[in-house]
Amino acid sequence: MMIGFTRDYCLPCQVMKPWLAELRREHARAVDVVVVNLDRKKNQRFRSLAGSGTVPTQVFVGSSGRVEERQAGLLTREQMTATFRKLGWIR
Questions:
Q1: What value does the mean pLDDT of the chain take?
Q2: pTM above the 0.90 mark?
Q3: Could you tell me if residue 14 is inside a domain?
């Protein structure tokens, strides 16, 4: 599972939003792509998983529930796909 942490005011987050939606559709059978907006009150409990609070942050969680990788900052769709490959989630 990849969790993308965002905020409403974050321009890079807005840039990444369509890429995350594309990844969700393209890899639906292999990878769960979830977006968590930290500005929503109900999502505050996930702040510690996001790490330092820098957004956007992408957390890659393996099937064991262990965080396998964490990347902060603007990532392109291609960079996120490369991480899926590196982790063995897709070919």
A1: 92
A2: no
A3: yes
Report yes or no on 91 lying in a domain. Answer: no
Burial letters for 37-71: b for 16+ Cβ neighbours within 10 Å, e otherwise? Answer: bbeeeeeeebeeebeeeebbbbbbbeeeeeebebb
Residue 52 has pLDDT above 80, yes or no: no
Specify whether the CB–CB gap between 33 and 60 falls below 8 A: no
* Structural domain includes residue 48: yes
Count Cβ atoms below 10 Å from residue 7 Cβ, excluding itself. Answer: 16
Q: Domain residues for 65?
A: 2-86
Cα(8)–Cα(58) distance, rounded to whole angstroms?
16
CB atoms within 10 A of CB 9: 9
